[in-house]
Write a structure and sequence with these properties.
Membrane topology: Multi-pass membrane protein
Number of strands: 0
CATH class of the largest domain: Mainly Alpha
Number of helices: 18
Protein name: MFS transporter
Subcellular location: Cell membrane
Keywords: Membrane, Transmembrane, Transmembrane helix, Transport
Order of helices and strands: HHHHHHHHHHHHHHHHHH
InterPro entries: MFS, MFS_dom, MFS_trans_sf
Distance between the termini: 41 Å
CATH superfamily of the largest domain: MFS general substrate transporter like domains
Radius of gyration: 21 Å
Structural class: mainly alpha
Strand content: under 5%
Length: 458
Amino acid sequence: MTNSIKPRLLLEIIAVGILAFAGVLTKTAANVAFPAMMAAFHIDLGTVQWVTSAYMLTATLVIPMSAYLQRSFTSLALFLSASFFFTVGTGLIVGAPSLALVLVGRVLQGVGNGIAIPLMFNIILTAVPRSQRGMMMGVGTLITATAGAIGPTYGGLLVDRWGWRMIFIALLPLLLGSLVLGLVTIYGERRPARQPFAFLDYGLLALGLLLILLAQNGLGEAAPLVSLAEYGLGIICLFLFAYRSTHTATPVLNLAIFKNAAFSWLALTYFTTFMVFLSMSFVLPNDVQLVMGRGSMVAGLAVLPGAAAAAILSPGSGHLLDRFGARRPILTGAGLTLVGLTIFAILGSRLRLWQLVATYLLVMVGLGLCASNIMTCSLDGLAADQQAAGNAVLNTLQQFAGAFGTSLSALIINRAQRQTNLAAPIATACEMQKIFVLFSGIILVELIILTVALRKRR
């Protein structure tokens, strides 16, 4: 039995995995509901995008605490906390009379998911027999990838028939089942020792990231000097955080790993890859609804093939890296992504729906080939005792990349609402095309960096 997974352990992983699944599901499902929420609360796209950005920013800030939490609390305590935050947040959203309360609920959901995802992988790494650990890590990755893939379709079907709140109402039975299963299977098997936590450093990180997102969201408003001041303060906070992190024995994030030049360049491309990856799940559903005039269900179905392809390729692309090395799958993936984004940038609103679906599929196949392999390649370049720190840094970058990219895309699209000389769909299409041009340029630069970095690594 030492080399097999006990049924109780499998159920334990499933209980935490349900929470992780629900969190990622709402992240992509909410993007399809934005037009409906804009109408319900009488707000613009720049404001409603905080439904996603607030969630991802919160998860960004909780994930760096995961190592401290797992050292200081039992798995059962962490599971119950994650379940409490996520369920309370979901309940608040279901009954929220205003966007402000929806955002409070999304922050609580972000806390719950920020605890649940690292907890799921920690249970796998510490309790699953080594002979089956790789398989279960793949299952854990597939849980989150599948949730991201079906989220837009799930959201579109529910929004069209029952309204945007049903996205969250339908999760309540699932969350209750997860709680019951976790109470039965997860035990507090040890009494961990509480350890000190660098609250000042953590506060600097949180304030810096929040100020940057607030500044970016306010760039389109009438007070650009305020936004520039917020940007400046945010950068100062992050600089102080970086300085303190490299001068303490117990940093929140070990930034000393950035002294490794190869890791630094690959981490940069990991950030830009996920900025485009997660932003496209926001941009395309809104393109289908705001430009093409289709419903939420069509928008969800339009992104399903691409999202499913990325989900399938993310765990499987590692096999290509093992067989052919890093250069082929990563550079092929980045190249396919660039081709797809260039098509979007050139043709824009002239694409028919089926052409949009096919082009998005090409983009997501490319991202699926390179995203997880960039992470693997960057971690492989670190010493064994630095890989845990590298993993924490990359997971933090991934979450913030999504919040940053979504906020940036919403800022650009929101300009369409101020172009009174053009019809709303035409103005929105013009702004969408600018996003695709920007993303094409980012991936082109990324492809150049990857070509150089991977050649030196070889």
